[in-house]
Design brief:
The complex is a heterodimer of chains A (about 400) and B (about 350). Chain A is α+β, with helices and mostly antiparallel strands. Chain A has helices at about 10, 20-30, 35-50, 100-115, 135-145, 175-185, 190-195, 215-220, 235-245, 245-250, 280-285, 325-345, 350-355, 360-365; strands spanning about 55, 70, 70-75, 85-90, 95-100, 115-120, 125-130, 160-165, 205, 220-230, 230-235, 260, 265-270, 290, 295-300, 315-320. Chain A is built from 14 helices and 16 strands. In chain A, helix 2 (about 20-30) runs antiparallel to helix 3 (about 35-50) and helix 4 (about 100-115) runs antiparallel to helix 5. The chains are: A alpha+beta (about 400), B alpha+beta (about 350).
Chain lengths: ~400, ~350
């Protein structure tokens, strides 16, 4: 396709060392009218300093209530190529690993049915195909699903679970994040494709408390790998580190619980006082490793600031073994969703619902015992509830 | 041409189909890793086998031709395997040290930015912006490009006291949850939505529009079969616009960017933390947002000068105090910095132990 629009403002963003999204749009525009108009459309947004996209309409593929986000321009006459510019969310494989053969096949299909533009990846983790027309949705879905791919979540449904790369390439993984993510995704296909929740629900699975997938900030349920028992120490390697770093200043003095000591010869850890923050392990990768009794901490409730302020997930299960077939885990999830379904208002996230109805009540209703690990401190006010059974009649 | 038979509810392909052989063989057996340079690291297995990873930045918004180019590089050097990181980098993995240099050379020759590993600035997590979103108060990809061009040396080479995670959200919905980043830019509005009474009547559900407002600023307007807004209660979050398209809030002259800093998601040393407001509003000044990149540089400069080794931005600020942060950066402290929303009370200083600025 020949150039259709002048883009002086966007052209400025092709200069400089960081890879340019404008260059990407121009590459796609070479063989897509849609992307050609996307360039002109974006240039106009830059010029007027305002977006020209309208609210999504309801579009999708047969039998699914999600996976496709409708997107329309508010100036379709000027830019007919982006009059419809819908997003298709394709469920990523766990860990974001691909083969070139699989990716190239998807690229060929997207050039045939869409704009040639993608997000690798969307914020939630989907392989996002950006920009197609309503009539191309069914054929694109038939092509990709027949090749073993499926759509991710959107709307008031389970969203595509995602994870860090875990045991595939990281020595700190306390749980098999990729296996768990794949299992959850397969277990809840119906909940993902047919929105029936009060609002969205996200799982993110991190192998350790470093949390490279940011699960504690952006997952309704954060599954974070952890361990019990002593940190494994290789004292010979400690000696090697002592030759190249100041262990006292960089490790011992920075330990948040003061549970470590180094006398110049060997390292000692008071494991009962360790809170497993990972600082020492992350800085002395050859000398220290997580303990061997491994599992996960389950935390619930995080979300972005809309509407009454951002929440971070908080502990609801201090320790759970996350091993197949994950029965205890799935039982708990089903109870949580049932409770949310019963009490949640439209567009109320699980974290907001617990805030509204109370955390103790949530714990009682889903059958979890209170534990000091669940709070930073006990309440400071004297206004607490009792059950009927606690009252002498 | 007839289409193949569609399948439903099959889920994604199993990841085991995509793992490089050295990864599949040593799955769960990794012993330790070492960062070799800004863009390379090695993981060593119990078996003695090693995997070398080379990381390069992408703009996330990729054309199919770019993905094909990544594929060609993967085929030439990595047996056709590649992966992406949660911060939009592409990673190429090889099983021998001798294969690293030719791979890095090809990436450099093709002008890719190799880096982002270790105590540096990795790639920016961001949203769609004007490229593809109806509620964007700013663009995301353009801001990312302007910032990363400006700080690229901290991606490819120079070290910082610790990692600095930068994120961009084009509105307060914050897809991608940027609210726990070392430095985050957030598109914000400064004016209330405008009500199109006729369209509210035709396209919106009045009760859900009213209940979408977190400050109860919206009430029914029965005469017009629409809604009205108590202007002094509106804090321009745009949640009503998400529910009711007849209440547009975008305002080219008054939309802009807020900067929040000091957040983190890891548990390393200190608990995960939300980012806090340091600049309430900077005008949208595309295509390069110079006022924003200046402010980011100011924060980085003060952090580099003041932080101890291993301290994240938030840990440094914790030590010197927020009054110290405003002193060191020179940002003006305004009424907007003092919280008057949900968690306000917890943020007031209930002690006499502040530092003079």
């Amino acid at each position: 396709m020949s150039k259709k629009h002048d883009t002086p403002l966007l052209d400025e963003l092709e200069k400089g060392p960081f890879p340019s999204f404008v260059t990407e749009m121009k590459m796609a525009a070479k063989h897509s009218d849609m992307s050609n108009d996307l360039l002109g459309h974006t240039e106009l947004c830059y010029k007027e300093r305002v977006t020209h996209w309208k609210h999504g309409g309801i579009v999708g593929v047969r039998g699914y209530g999600g996976g496709v986000i409708g997107r329309y321009s508010d100036i379709p006459d000027k830019f007919p190529g982006v009059a419809h510019f819908h997003t298709v969310r394709v469920n990523c494989p766990s860990g974001f690993y691909y083969t070139s053969a699989a990716l190239k096949e998807m690229c060929d299909l997207w050039d045939q049915y869409g704009s040639g533009m993608t997000n690798v990846h969307g914020s939630t983790g989907d392989l996002v195909f950006l920009g197609t027309k309503t009539e191309h949705l069914e054929p694109f879905f038939a092509e990709i699903s027949s090749r073993g791919w499926d759509l991710g979540g959107s709307g008031s449904a389970l969203r595509t679970p995602s994870c860090c790369l875990g045991k595939s390439r990281c020595e700190w993984a306390n749980i098999d994040t990729m296996a768990i993510t794949n299992d959850i995704t397969q277990h809840y296909q119906d909940e993902m494709h047919r929105p029936a929740f009060p609002y969205k629900f996200k799982f993110k699975i991190a192998g350790c408390p470093v949390d490279c997938i940011a699960s504690i900030a952006r997952a309704d349920m954060s599954i974070i790998g952890t361990w019990k028992g002593p940190i494994r120490i290789n004292q010979d390697e400690v000696q090697n580190y002592a030759k190249k770093m100041n262990i006292q200043a960089e490790i011992i003095d920075m330990c948040p619980t003061g549970c470590m000591a180094f006398d110049g010869k060997s390292m000692k850890i008071d494991n009962a006082n360790c809170n497993r923050c990972m600082h020492c392990i992350a800085k002395m990768t050859k000398a220290l490793r997580p303990g061997t009794e491994q599992g996960a901490t389950l935390l619930l409730g995080s979300k972005a600031p809309i509407v009454t302020g951002a929440l971070m997930s908080w502990v609801i299960v201090p320790f759970i073994k996350m091993e197949p077939p994950y029965e205890e885990f799935y039982d708990l999830i089903d109870k949580i969703w049932e409770w949310w379904d019963e009490h949640g208002k439209n567009r109320e996230r699980i974290g907001e619902l617990i805030e509204r109805l109370s955390f103790p009540r949530f714990l009682k209703d889903v059958g979890l015992d209170p534990h000091p690990a669940m709070v930073k401190e006990p309440r400071r006010d004297p206004f607490f509830f009792w059950d009927e059974s606690d009252i002498e009649k | 041409m007839s289409l193949p038979d569609r399948q439903t509810d099959i889920g994604p392909p199993h990841y085991s189909k995509f793992l490089p052989p050295v990864i599949a063989k040593n799955y769960g057996k990794w012993l330790y890793h070492e960062v070799l340079s800004a863009g390379t690291m090695v993981h060593v297995s119990e078996s003695g086998e090693k995997v070398y990873t080379v990381r390069a930045a992408t703009p996330r918004l990729l054309s199919t031709d770019r993905i094909r180019e990544f594929c060609a590089i993967a085929e030439k050097h990595c047996g056709g395997h590649l992966r992406f990181t949660s911060r939009n980098n592409v990673e190429f993995m090889v099983d021998a040290e001798s294969k690293v240099a030719p791979l890095v050379k090809e990436l450099n020759d093709k002008k890719y930015m190799v880096g982002g590993i270790g105590p540096r600035i990795s790639n920016v997590v961001h949203t769609q912006g004007w490229v593809h979103c109806h509620s964007a108060a700013t663009d995301a990809s353009g801001l990312v490009k302007a910032i990363m061009d400006d700080v690229h040396e901290y991606f490819t080479d120079k070290e910082l006291p610790n990692k600095v995670r930068i994120a961009v959200a084009c509105c307060v919905n914050m897809c991608g949850a940027v609210h726990c980043s070392d430095i985050a830019l957030v598109g914000v509005h400064k004016t209330p939505p405008r009500i199109d009474d006729n369209n509210v009547k035709n396209f919106c559900e009045v009760p859900s529009t009213i209940s979408s407002c977190p400050t109860s600023a919206i009430s029914p307007d029965p005469a017009k079969k629409s809604v009205k807004i108590k202007l002094e209660k509106c804090m321009y979050c745009g949640n009503c616009y998400s529910v009711c398209p007849a209440m547009p809030i975008a305002d080219a002259k008054n939309d802009g960017i807020a900067i929040v800093v000091g957040g983190k998601v890891s548990n390393l040393r200190s608990d995960p933390t939300f980012s806090k407001l340091v600049v309430p509003w900077i005008p949208n000044n595309p295509p390069r947002w110079p006022e924003v990149t200046d402010a980011v540089q100011k924060i980085l400069k003060a952090y580099v000068a003041g932080a101890k080794k291993h301290e994240r931005v938030g840990e440094w600020i914790d030590r010197i105090g927020w009054e110290g942060f405003f002193r060191e950066t020179g940002f003006e402290f305004k009424y907007q910095h003092i919280d008057d929303f949900t968690f306000a009370r917890e943020t007031f200083r209930m002690a006499a132990t502040f530092k003079w600025s």
